[in-house]
Amino acid sequence: MLYAALFLFLGMKNTFKNIDEYILLFPIEVQEKLLELRGIIHSQVSELEEYIGYQMPAFRHKGKPLVYFAGYKKHIGFYPGADGIKNFEKDFEKNKYKFSKGAVQFPIDEALPSALIAKIVRFRIQEIEQKKS
Fold it and tell me: What is the pLDDT of residue 36?
């Protein structure tokens, strides 16, 4: 089965038109995690726009990019932007999640940290709303 990372590596154009098509690229256990993550994101705010950005599932709030995610063989990549990472570094370290300037990795073989993801999404929503005012 092809993984989204392969599409990025090969530099291919979008071969999927929406998040549902993207999720179907993965084995069922990864699909379940991606659907769960999508649900956590949507549970934080009612009006989100879904789209594909940078070849990944992405969400906009009030026209501004909110978060992205991507499936990989051993982890789910979650991309809340630099401030979204910086603000939660201690949580990532405490839970031993790998992270970089703009991304955190949630292992496929562990439960998604839904409370932490929800906090990050709320943080990003607040950032967007403060910049709009």
Answer: 98
